[in-house]
Design brief:
- The protein is α/β, with parallel strands linked by helices.
- The chain is built from twelve helices and ten strands.
- Strands 1, 2, 3, 4, 5, 6, 7, 8, 9 and 10 form a ten-stranded mixed sheet that branches.
- Helix 6 runs parallel beside helix 7.
- InterPro entries: TRAP_TAXI.
- It comes from Acetomicrobium hydrogeniformans.
């Protein structure tokens, strides 16, 4: 009897040890699953611009999407810094204007000392078309009418002026000889156009631009299209630019689409990002377009046809998503 009790006691101890071992293994598995989360940092922009709030909304969407991602957004000085942060691994997603992203990828202009950075496109967010705006009182109705007129090309050194000069160069117009050049900031351009102190302003921003709407509130505006041959030359010489039509009805009195060129705003990632992760990120962002639009109107462009615009190679994970929608994009 004593021997039997000892045997049963030993079996109970073994059972308890086995159960304890199973419990420990289950706990380890649970902990492992709980920590199988990818932490993502989104480099956005400065407080007050579009990038900063958009980064916050994206981080929230990605975190609650059930794709094992915890995302946070950080304020930065925007495009140039973001490209460097992503290339160095200090951020995982970076928002950037196309012109800056192209320079970073090619190691040119502002990135000449950096060399070519290992960046890929996750998706195109929204376009920033160039606006050429005048008022009915000037009599200007077509692009060549700006010759000899008072034209604001944008503030010195600003993005507006850089892109304006590209367009004028492609059109064979010398801003120092062929027009009465003025270099106004956007607020200054609004006041000058409303007061009749300038005939035409060149602006670059997403539609609808508040500057244009402010002028349209007190004056009858006219949107000037860029001729097709000039658009073709701009795009050929500056590959980060692309043709774009500002849809009719975007601004008061605008009854037709207006042909222009646009710089884009992109999400960039490191070329070494995991393919499945990149796929999940772009899929989640695009499929939550409606929710993002509630805070950021520019998210209306978060559709595969526009999101697949590419000026440098697209990350293979994002390319996989676009291919599922019948869109082929450059990968290398």
């Amino acid at each position: 009897m004593c021997q039997k009790n000892k045997q049963e006691g030993g079996e109970n101890v073994m059972k308890k040890r086995t159960l304890l071992a199973v419990a420990l293994l289950s706990l380890v598995a649970f902990v492992g699953t709980a920590y199988a989360v990818t932490y993502i940092t989104i480099a956005s922009g400065g407080i007050g611009g579009t990038y900063y709030p958009l980064g916050g909304v994206m981080a929230e969407i990605l975190t609650k999407a059930g794709i094992d991602v915890k995302a946070t957004s950080r304020a930065t000085s925007a495009s140039r810094e973001n490209c460097r942060l992503v290339a160095s691994g200090r951020a995982h997603i970076g928002m950037s204007m196309g012109s800056t992203l192209y320079q970073a990828y090619t190691g040119t202009e502002a990135f000449e000392e950096d060399g070519a950075l290992p960046l890929r496109i996750l998706m195109h967010m929204y376009p920033a078309p160039h606006h050429i705006v005048t008022t009915k009182g000037t009599g200007i109705t077509k692009f060549e009418d700006i010759i000899g007129k008072k034209v604001s090309v944008g503030a010195p050194g600003g993005g507006d002026q850089v892109l304006t000069n590209m367009i004028l160069e492609a059109a064979g117009i010398d801003p120092d000889k062929d027009i009465k050049k003025q270099q106004l900031t956007q607020p200054e351009g609004v006041m000058a156009l409303k007061d009749g102190n300038v005939d035409v302003v060149f602006w670059n921003f997403a539609t609808p631009g508040s500057a244009v709407l402010e002028v349209a509130a007190v004056r009858d505006i006219v949107m000037i299209p860029i001729p097709q041959d000039v658009v073709d030359r701009v795009v050929e010489k500056f590959p980060f630019m692309f043709p774009y039509k500002i849809p009719k009805g975007t601004y008061p009195g605008q009854e037709e689409d207006v042909l222009t060129v646009a710089d884009g705003n992109f999400l960039a990632v490191n070329k070494d990002m995991d393919e499945e992760l990149a796929y999940k990120l772009v899929k989640t962002i695009i499929e939550n377009r409606e929710e993002i639009m509630q805070s950021i109107p520019q998210a209306e462009h978060f559709v595969p046809e526009e999101a697949s615009i590419a000026i440098i190679p697209v990350h293979p994970g994002a390319a996989k998503y676009f291919k599922e929608h019948g869109i082929e994009v450059p990968v290398e």
